[in-house]
Amino acid sequence: MVTRTRFDDSDCPVARSVDAIGDWWSLLIVRDAFDGSRRFGEFQRSLGVAKNILTARLRSLVAGDVLESVPASDGSAYREYVLTAKGRELFPVIVALRQWGEANFFAPGEPHSQLVDRRRGERLRALEVRSADGRLLDPDDTTVHKVSAE
Amino acid sequence: MVTRTRFDDSDCPVARSVDAIGDWWSLLIVRDAFDGSRRFGEFQRSLGVAKNILTARLRSLVAGDVLESVPASDGSAYREYVLTAKGRELFPVIVALRQWGEANFFAPGEPHSQLVDRRRGERLRALEVRSADGRLLDPDDTTVHKVSAE
DNA sequence: CCCTGCTGGTAGCATGTTGCAACCAGCTTG
DNA sequence: CAAGCTGGTTGCAACATGCTACCAGCAGGG
Protein backbone atom coordinates (compact mmCIF):
# COMPACT_ATOMS: atom_id res chain seq x y z
CA MET A 1 0.00 0.00 0.00
CA VAL A 2 1.30 3.41 -0.89
CA THR A 3 -1.56 5.43 0.50
CA ARG A 4 -0.69 8.15 2.90
CA THR A 5 -0.23 6.72 6.34
CA ARG A 6 -3.24 7.26 8.59
CA PHE A 7 -3.08 7.78 12.31
CA ASP A 8 -6.69 7.34 13.25
CA ASP A 9 -5.93 4.24 15.30
CA SER A 10 -2.92 5.64 17.09
CA ASP A 11 -3.19 5.83 20.85
CA CYS A 12 -1.80 9.35 20.76
CA PRO A 13 -4.39 12.11 20.66
CA VAL A 14 -2.04 14.38 18.76
CA ALA A 15 -1.80 11.81 16.00
CA ARG A 16 -5.56 11.43 15.76
CA SER A 17 -6.01 15.18 15.61
CA VAL A 18 -3.45 15.48 12.87
CA ASP A 19 -5.18 12.71 11.01
CA ALA A 20 -8.58 14.36 11.33
CA ILE A 21 -7.52 17.78 10.19
CA GLY A 22 -5.99 15.92 7.32
CA ASP A 23 -3.89 18.54 5.73
CA TRP A 24 -2.96 22.13 6.03
CA TRP A 25 -5.64 23.42 3.72
CA SER A 26 -8.13 22.08 6.19
CA LEU A 27 -6.63 24.10 8.99
CA LEU A 28 -6.69 27.27 6.92
CA ILE A 29 -10.31 26.60 6.04
CA VAL A 30 -11.05 26.33 9.75
CA ARG A 31 -9.14 29.55 10.36
CA ASP A 32 -11.26 31.30 7.75
CA ALA A 33 -14.39 29.82 9.26
CA PHE A 34 -13.45 31.35 12.63
CA ASP A 35 -12.91 34.55 10.72
CA GLY A 36 -16.44 34.54 9.36
CA SER A 37 -16.22 32.78 6.00
CA ARG A 38 -19.20 30.57 5.28
CA ARG A 39 -19.63 30.17 1.55
CA PHE A 40 -17.70 28.01 -0.88
CA GLY A 41 -16.75 31.06 -2.89
CA GLU A 42 -15.53 32.95 0.15
CA PHE A 43 -13.14 30.16 1.09
CA GLN A 44 -12.04 29.83 -2.48
CA ARG A 45 -11.22 33.51 -2.96
CA SER A 46 -9.65 33.88 0.45
CA LEU A 47 -7.39 30.86 0.13
CA GLY A 48 -6.75 30.82 -3.60
CA VAL A 49 -7.14 27.07 -3.51
CA ALA A 50 -8.24 25.05 -6.53
CA LYS A 51 -11.91 24.29 -6.43
CA ASN A 52 -11.57 20.54 -6.61
CA ILE A 53 -9.24 20.59 -3.62
CA LEU A 54 -11.60 22.84 -1.72
CA THR A 55 -14.48 20.52 -2.51
CA ALA A 56 -12.56 17.53 -1.19
CA ARG A 57 -11.44 19.35 1.97
CA LEU A 58 -14.86 20.69 2.79
CA ARG A 59 -16.27 17.21 2.37
CA SER A 60 -13.71 15.65 4.65
CA LEU A 61 -14.21 18.34 7.27
CA VAL A 62 -17.95 17.76 7.13
CA ALA A 63 -17.38 14.01 7.34
CA GLY A 64 -15.15 14.57 10.35
CA ASP A 65 -17.81 16.67 12.05
CA VAL A 66 -15.66 19.79 12.11
CA LEU A 67 -17.90 21.71 9.72
CA GLU A 68 -21.50 21.16 8.85
CA SER A 69 -23.35 22.11 5.71
CA VAL A 70 -26.48 24.17 6.34
CA PRO A 71 -28.90 26.07 4.11
CA ALA A 72 -27.65 29.56 3.30
CA SER A 73 -28.62 32.18 5.82
CA ASP A 74 -29.51 34.73 3.11
CA GLY A 75 -32.46 32.68 1.86
CA SER A 76 -30.85 31.62 -1.41
CA ALA A 77 -30.82 28.00 -2.47
CA TYR A 78 -27.10 27.62 -1.84
CA ARG A 79 -25.42 26.08 1.17
CA GLU A 80 -23.04 27.35 3.79
CA TYR A 81 -20.37 25.68 5.84
CA VAL A 82 -20.27 26.49 9.53
CA LEU A 83 -18.19 25.18 12.40
CA THR A 84 -19.70 22.51 14.61
CA ALA A 85 -19.13 22.49 18.36
CA LYS A 86 -16.19 20.15 17.76
CA GLY A 87 -14.84 22.55 15.17
CA ARG A 88 -15.11 25.51 17.49
CA GLU A 89 -13.02 23.60 20.02
CA LEU A 90 -10.12 24.01 17.59
CA PHE A 91 -9.91 27.65 18.63
CA PRO A 92 -6.90 27.18 20.94
CA VAL A 93 -5.10 25.28 18.19
CA ILE A 94 -5.52 28.14 15.75
CA VAL A 95 -4.57 30.70 18.36
CA ALA A 96 -1.48 28.72 19.29
CA LEU A 97 -0.36 28.50 15.67
CA ARG A 98 -1.08 32.18 15.19
CA GLN A 99 0.99 33.21 18.17
CA TRP A 100 3.85 30.96 17.13
CA GLY A 101 3.78 32.45 13.65
CA GLU A 102 3.63 36.01 14.93
CA ALA A 103 6.57 35.43 17.22
CA ASN A 104 8.78 33.67 14.72
CA PHE A 105 8.01 34.61 11.15
CA PHE A 106 7.55 38.35 11.12
CA ALA A 107 10.09 41.09 11.40
CA PRO A 108 9.23 43.69 14.03
CA GLY A 109 6.71 46.05 12.49
CA GLU A 110 6.10 43.84 9.47
CA PRO A 111 2.42 44.02 8.51
CA HIS A 112 0.32 40.98 9.27
CA SER A 113 -3.23 40.08 10.14
CA GLN A 114 -3.77 40.06 13.85
CA LEU A 115 -6.35 38.48 16.10
CA VAL A 116 -7.65 40.94 18.66
CA ASP A 117 -10.11 41.05 21.48
CA ARG A 118 -13.25 42.53 19.93
CA ARG A 119 -14.22 44.54 22.97
CA ARG A 120 -10.98 46.38 23.49
CA GLY A 121 -9.16 45.87 20.20
CA GLU A 122 -6.09 44.58 21.99
CA ARG A 123 -3.88 41.61 21.23
CA LEU A 124 -4.58 38.45 23.12
CA ARG A 125 -2.60 37.17 26.04
CA ALA A 126 -0.11 34.45 25.08
CA LEU A 127 -1.42 30.94 25.68
CA GLU A 128 -0.14 29.33 28.85
CA VAL A 129 0.16 25.65 29.65
CA ARG A 130 -0.80 25.12 33.28
CA SER A 131 -1.10 22.23 35.66
CA ALA A 132 -4.41 21.30 37.25
CA ASP A 133 -3.47 23.37 40.27
CA GLY A 134 -2.49 26.35 38.17
CA ARG A 135 1.31 26.25 37.99
CA LEU A 136 2.81 27.45 34.69
CA LEU A 137 4.44 24.48 32.97
CA ASP A 138 7.42 24.15 30.67
CA PRO A 139 7.79 21.14 28.37
CA ASP A 140 10.26 19.69 30.87
CA ASP A 141 7.66 19.84 33.62
CA THR A 142 5.49 17.33 31.81
CA THR A 143 5.73 13.70 30.86
CA VAL A 144 3.65 11.25 28.86
CA HIS A 145 1.82 8.43 30.59
CA LYS A 146 0.41 5.40 28.90
CA VAL A 147 -3.09 5.01 30.23
CA SER A 148 -4.32 1.47 29.61
CA ALA A 149 -7.72 1.93 31.19
CA GLU A 150 -9.09 4.20 33.83
CA MET B 1 3.66 25.13 -11.34
CA VAL B 2 2.22 22.10 -9.67
CA THR B 3 4.34 22.21 -6.56
CA ARG B 4 2.46 22.26 -3.33
CA THR B 5 1.28 25.77 -2.63
CA ARG B 6 3.45 27.64 -0.17
CA PHE B 7 2.24 30.17 2.34
CA ASP B 8 5.51 31.65 3.48
CA ASP B 9 4.63 35.06 2.08
CA SER B 10 1.10 35.17 3.39
CA ASP B 11 0.33 37.96 5.82
CA CYS B 12 -1.43 35.51 8.12
CA PRO B 13 0.74 34.05 10.87
CA VAL B 14 -1.30 30.85 10.88
CA ALA B 15 -0.46 30.31 7.23
CA ARG B 16 3.25 30.86 7.78
CA SER B 17 3.25 28.46 10.71
CA VAL B 18 1.49 25.84 8.64
CA ASP B 19 4.00 26.37 5.90
CA ALA B 20 6.93 25.97 8.26
CA ILE B 21 5.75 22.79 9.90
CA GLY B 22 5.11 21.51 6.43
CA ASP B 23 3.27 18.27 6.97
CA TRP B 24 1.83 15.84 9.46
CA TRP B 25 5.00 13.93 10.00
CA SER B 26 6.80 17.07 11.05
CA LEU B 27 4.37 17.75 13.83
CA LEU B 28 4.60 14.19 15.11
CA ILE B 29 8.37 14.43 15.03
CA VAL B 30 8.11 17.55 17.17
CA ARG B 31 5.73 15.76 19.50
CA ASP B 32 8.24 12.93 19.90
CA ALA B 33 11.00 15.44 20.47
CA PHE B 34 9.03 16.95 23.34
CA ASP B 35 8.61 13.43 24.58
CA GLY B 36 12.34 12.84 24.71
CA SER B 37 13.25 11.31 21.36
CA ARG B 38 16.57 12.52 20.02
CA ARG B 39 18.04 9.95 17.68
CA PHE B 40 17.13 9.17 14.09
CA GLY B 41 16.36 5.59 15.02
CA GLU B 42 14.14 6.61 17.92
CA PHE B 43 11.97 8.75 15.67
CA GLN B 44 11.92 6.05 13.06
CA ARG B 45 10.80 3.30 15.41
CA SER B 46 8.33 5.46 17.23
CA LEU B 47 6.65 6.80 14.12
CA GLY B 48 7.05 3.86 11.77
CA VAL B 49 7.89 6.32 9.02
CA ALA B 50 9.99 5.40 6.01
CA LYS B 51 13.58 6.46 6.46
CA ASN B 52 13.79 8.60 3.36
CA ILE B 53 10.74 10.55 4.51
CA LEU B 54 12.18 10.95 7.99
CA THR B 55 15.46 12.16 6.52
CA ALA B 56 13.65 14.79 4.46
CA ARG B 57 11.49 15.94 7.38
CA LEU B 58 14.36 16.20 9.81
CA ARG B 59 16.28 18.23 7.27
CA SER B 60 13.41 20.62 6.69
CA LEU B 61 12.84 21.03 10.42
CA VAL B 62 16.52 21.77 10.89
CA ALA B 63 16.41 24.21 7.97
CA GLY B 64 13.40 25.88 9.57
CA ASP B 65 15.22 26.24 12.87
CA VAL B 66 12.75 24.05 14.75
CA LEU B 67 15.28 21.31 15.42
CA GLU B 68 19.02 21.43 15.45
CA SER B 69 21.51 18.67 14.86
CA VAL B 70 24.06 18.28 17.64
CA PRO B 71 26.73 15.69 18.47
CA ALA B 72 25.31 12.73 20.35
CA SER B 73 25.22 13.14 24.11
CA ASP B 74 26.47 9.59 24.72
CA GLY B 75 29.86 10.35 23.22
CA SER B 76 29.38 8.26 20.11
CA ALA B 77 30.12 9.71 16.69
CA TYR B 78 26.44 9.91 15.73
CA ARG B 79 24.22 12.97 15.84
CA GLU B 80 21.07 13.89 17.69
CA TYR B 81 18.17 16.16 16.88
CA VAL B 82 16.99 18.47 19.62
CA LEU B 83 14.42 21.24 19.72
CA THR B 84 15.62 24.80 19.36
CA ALA B 85 14.08 27.63 21.37
CA LYS B 86 11.74 28.26 18.46
CA GLY B 87 10.80 24.60 18.42
CA ARG B 88 10.08 24.55 22.13
CA GLU B 89 7.67 27.43 21.59
CA LEU B 90 5.48 24.96 19.72
CA PHE B 91 4.54 23.44 23.06
CA PRO B 92 1.13 25.13 23.27
CA VAL B 93 0.36 23.98 19.72
CA ILE B 94 1.04 20.36 20.61
CA VAL B 95 -0.88 20.65 23.86
CA ALA B 96 -3.84 22.20 22.05
CA LEU B 97 -3.91 19.42 19.49
CA ARG B 98 -3.57 16.84 22.22
CA GLN B 99 -6.47 18.21 24.20
CA TRP B 100 -8.65 18.45 21.12
CA GLY B 101 -7.85 14.86 20.25
CA GLU B 102 -8.50 13.63 23.77
CA ALA B 103 -11.84 15.36 23.89
CA ASN B 104 -13.07 14.26 20.50
CA PHE B 105 -11.50 11.03 19.33
CA PHE B 106 -11.54 8.73 22.32
CA ALA B 107 -14.39 6.90 23.92
CA PRO B 108 -14.59 7.40 27.68
CA GLY B 109 -12.08 5.08 29.28
CA GLU B 110 -10.41 4.22 25.98
CA PRO B 111 -6.69 3.84 26.52
CA HIS B 112 -4.48 6.60 25.19
CA SER B 113 -1.21 8.28 25.93
CA GLN B 114 -1.65 11.21 28.22
CA LEU B 115 0.41 14.26 28.99
CA VAL B 116 0.66 14.85 32.71
CA ASP B 117 2.26 17.27 35.10
CA ARG B 118 5.46 15.56 36.15
CA ARG B 119 5.33 16.75 39.72
CA ARG B 120 1.85 15.58 40.58
CA GLY B 121 1.04 13.14 37.78
CA GLU B 122 -2.19 14.95 37.04
CA ARG B 123 -3.71 15.93 33.71
CA LEU B 124 -3.12 19.46 32.59
CA ARG B 125 -5.63 22.25 32.77
CA ALA B 126 -7.40 22.90 29.48
CA LEU B 127 -5.85 25.73 27.48
CA GLU B 128 -7.72 28.99 27.73
CA VAL B 129 -7.75 31.88 25.31
CA ARG B 130 -7.72 35.12 27.26
CA SER B 131 -7.69 38.81 26.51
CA ALA B 132 -4.84 41.05 27.59
CA ASP B 133 -6.81 41.95 30.70
CA GLY B 134 -7.57 38.34 31.51
CA ARG B 135 -11.12 37.76 30.32
CA LEU B 136 -11.84 34.30 28.93
CA LEU B 137 -12.58 34.63 25.20
CA ASP B 138 -14.77 32.68 22.82
CA PRO B 139 -14.13 32.75 19.09
CA ASP B 140 -16.95 35.26 18.76
CA ASP B 141 -15.23 37.61 21.17
CA THR B 142 -12.35 38.07 18.76
CA THR B 143 -11.86 39.57 15.34
CA VAL B 144 -9.03 39.83 12.85
CA HIS B 145 -7.38 43.16 12.15
CA LYS B 146 -5.19 43.93 9.22
CA VAL B 147 -2.14 45.69 10.59
CA SER B 148 -0.40 47.55 7.80
CA ALA B 149 2.42 48.97 9.91
CA GLU B 150 2.80 49.79 13.55
C1' DC C 1 42.82 -6.41 13.07
C1' DC C 2 38.53 -8.67 11.27
C1' DC C 3 33.96 -9.89 11.22
C1' DT C 4 29.34 -8.84 12.41
C1' DG C 5 25.74 -5.98 13.51
C1' DC C 6 23.88 -1.31 14.32
C1' DT C 7 23.02 3.49 12.77
C1' DG C 8 21.80 6.61 9.58
C1' DG C 9 21.18 7.23 5.70
C1' DT C 10 20.50 7.09 -0.33
C1' DA C 11 18.41 5.19 -4.80
C1' DG C 12 14.73 3.50 -7.62
C1' DC C 13 10.20 2.52 -8.57
C1' DA C 14 5.01 2.31 -8.13
C1' DT C 15 1.17 4.76 -6.63
C1' DG C 16 -1.39 8.56 -4.47
C1' DT C 17 -2.20 13.28 -4.07
C1' DT C 18 -2.09 18.06 -5.61
C1' DG C 19 -2.69 21.80 -8.81
C1' DC C 20 -4.38 23.77 -12.99
C1' DA C 21 -7.59 24.55 -16.50
C1' DA C 22 -11.62 23.49 -18.85
C1' DC C 23 -16.20 22.42 -18.55
C1' DC C 24 -21.02 22.31 -16.76
C1' DA C 25 -25.62 22.42 -14.39
C1' DG C 26 -28.61 24.91 -11.41
C1' DC C 27 -29.68 29.60 -9.46
C1' DT C 28 -30.95 34.41 -9.94
C1' DT C 29 -31.21 38.85 -11.48
C1' DG C 30 -31.89 42.30 -14.93
C1' DC D 1 -35.09 34.67 -20.95
C1' DA D 2 -30.38 35.53 -21.38
C1' DA D 3 -26.19 36.41 -19.05
C1' DG D 4 -23.55 35.81 -15.36
C1' DC D 5 -22.85 33.97 -10.63
C1' DT D 6 -22.25 29.75 -7.62
C1' DG D 7 -20.66 25.54 -6.71
C1' DG D 8 -19.09 22.24 -8.26
C1' DT D 9 -16.81 17.76 -11.64
C1' DT D 10 -13.39 15.81 -14.90
C1' DG D 11 -8.86 15.04 -17.05
C1' DC D 12 -4.20 15.53 -17.19
C1' DA D 13 0.63 16.47 -15.70
C1' DA D 14 3.76 16.97 -12.05
C1' DC D 15 5.11 16.20 -7.52
C1' DA D 16 5.13 13.78 -2.89
C1' DT D 17 4.84 9.53 -0.34
C1' DG D 18 5.79 4.80 0.81
C1' DC D 19 8.19 0.58 0.19
C1' DT D 20 12.18 -2.13 -0.53
C1' DA D 21 16.83 -2.75 -1.46
C1' DC D 22 21.24 -1.17 -0.91
C1' DC D 23 25.33 0.98 1.38
C1' DA D 24 29.00 3.52 4.06
C1' DG D 25 30.78 4.54 8.59
C1' DC D 26 30.96 3.29 13.46
C1' DA D 27 31.20 -0.12 17.45
C1' DG D 28 32.31 -4.05 19.89
C1' DG D 29 33.90 -8.88 20.60
C1' DG D 30 37.53 -12.00 19.82
Question: What keywords describe this structure?
Answer:
homodimer, 150 residues, alpha+beta, two-stranded antiparallel sheet, 6 helices, DNA-binding
Structure description:
The structure is a homodimer of 150-residue chains. In chain A, 39% of the residues lie in helices and 15% in strands. The first copy, chain A, has 150 residues and is α+β, with helices and mostly antiparallel strands. Chain A is built from six helices and four strands; from the N terminus they run ααααββααββ. The interface between A and B is large, with 82 and 82 residues. β4 (142-147) of chain A pairs antiparallel with β3 (112-117) of chain B, so a sheet runs across the interface. Chain B binds a DNA duplex (30 and 30 nucleotides) through residues 1-5, 23, 39-41, 44, 49-56, 76-79.
In short:
Chain A is α+β, with helices and mostly antiparallel strands. The first copy, chain A, has helices at 13-21, 24-34, 40-47, 51-63, 85-88, 91-104; strands spanning 67-71, 79-83, 112-117, 142-147.
What's the SSE blueprint?
2 copies of one chain form a homodimer.
Chain A: H1 13-21, H2 24-34, H3 40-47, H4 51-63, E1 67-71, E2 79-83, H5 85-88, H6 91-104, E3 112-117, E4 142-147
Antiparallel strand pairs in A: 1-2
Chain B binds a DNA duplex (30 and 30 nucleotides) through α3 and α4.
